[in-house]
Amino acid sequence: MEEKIYDVSPEWSRRAYLDDAGYKAKYEASVKDPERFWAEEAKRIHWFKQPTRIKNTNFGPENVAIRWFEDGTTNVAYNCIDRHLDTRGDQVAIIWEGDDPSESKKITYRELHDEVCRMANVMRNRGVAKGDRVTIYMPMIPEAAYAMLACARLGAIHSVVFGGFSPDSLAGRIEDAKTAFIVTADEGLRGGRKVPLKENVDAAIERVGPGIVDHVLVVRRTGAAVNMVPGRDVYYDEAAQMVSGECPVEEMNAEDPLFILYTSGSTGKPKGVLHTTGGYLVYTAMTHQYVFDYHDGDVYWCTADVGWVTGHSYILYGPLANGATTLMFEGVPTYPSISRFWDVIDKHNVNIFYTAPTAIRSLMQAGEDPVKKTSRKSLRLLGSVGEPINPEAWEWYHRVVGDGRCPIVDTWWQTETGGILITPLPGATKLKPGSATRPFFGVKPQVVDADGKVLEGQAEGNLVIADSWPGQMRTVYGDHERFVQTYFSTYPGKYFTGDGCRRDADGYYWITGRVDDVINVSGHRMGTAEVESALVAHPKVSEAAVVGYPHDIKGQGIYAYVTLMAGEQPTEELRKELVAWVRKEIGPIASPDLIQFAPGLPKTRSGKIMRRILRKIAEDEFGNLGDTSTLADPAVVNDLVENRQNKR
Ligand code: 6R9
Asked: Which residues carry this modification: N6-acetyllysine (predicted)?
């Protein structure tokens, strides 16, 4: 198949910050002399004390440590709010669009200042101080942003937990971060359906046990009557009335933690990815400006949830550091109609739109009419994130949503990277549908083979990054050894991304997906080990193995092989019960799409489950199972193949 290439339009090379020559020159400068490059870029934020030590990073093998701007002091909330008050106090900072289209509001930078200060004062009055952890379990309402920024203002470390996670998952995160303070809402609202957030918090605290959580701040969203524990729980609107709209900012060292965000890995429980203050802010602000070609006056919309890193970096911190107008959407793409995204774009004259391939694929199914009946003429640029975008979805996004006139920035990055690492720049980079294209400034990607040999030119292998960038995670919260093991031991001296990739003759990168036991379901990361441990916790399950399989809309679906306890019967009932069980244990995003009851799993003689074979069966590639001679009992494979579950 001939590769399609989209040139940069003349209009774009004129309007953008950089053209191709500009990109190349700046990239060269950034990797040749990172110290000098980042010293200059650090000036884009306000420092109370300017950093003089710029880069102090070591990828090992010994003493892995990452420090940027380490003698500088600043405050993220100051940069995202206070700094803008003189110049853009009356400009809209956040456009909030509710689940119901009749509800929306605009919050100016001055109002944001007032709200965040109140939230910070409410927290401070209840003992929250620099270095304390705060769990935020919220719907997509402005108070979620206020809570995050309030933590940043006080120097507290937020841990946002996605509102779709179960009480158990929430409890695990509260315990790991030892958070005494929780911010939540009575209920969430998505697609017209209510989510019992406060009830889930109560259940999570119950599970965590006494002595950890002292305060629960409850924002009224739906007004539902919820259980309020005297002395522990307080309504935000009531508490906010009692405090002032001014609150001093804490002076933070560049390397003081800003937040923890839990993410799935290939083994064990989710890791608390820790990001710090100065480098993260410089990096997210810079990428937001260049990748989205953000200019003053633009309306920018990222459809992610603040429970994921994309929401942290590109709804909140990057945009607000740049004094942008950022849109925050509470709802879902299909409610009240399948035109919702495009209606919101017209309603608020959105110029830059950033979403996930899974959303595009599901909207594609309804055809062009729901899109074409809207104007979308305000749109200038489209973005994609979360998983590889297949060329068909790319083309549809480009032709139908963007009317063929908007470049698409396919941005590759991770919770761990803090910000975008591989991406087109809209005025500089020719686009190839399905490729994240070229590295951002300061980023040194390499393709390595299984032995760690660096491959040059056109190559396919695993993606590593050879040197540090300011937005990189610093450690796994409370477990630096796990950080070193996970990211720096596979290829000593390099950061291992966990992704496979191909580099083509033009030096473009094509991410091929995870090479570890992480699957990507609708852009959400799931460790197969987490789903397995939820399944085996069920009293009727003896063993479980979980793999991904290609799914038309979700990208990957969850395929679970389950062996039952002796005497248990595989029934349709039990299948449903197990799906419901996993939803309850982890949350709806982890629901298995297919469950196959298997009398036995393929194992090596040493008892290791051979996932390679399970993956092939789930992918419908029976003819290509590879070497099965090392199996303890080759007969189990026949049964597995015969009883393969059909997709959807
Ligand atoms: C930001 C985010 C990270 C994993 C990553 C990769 C996949 C993200 C992608 C992409 C291909 C892209 N991924 N963006 N794959 N093209 N543009 O999604 O963070 O939730 O930590 O997921 O997502 O596999 O390793 P996170």
From this structure: 608
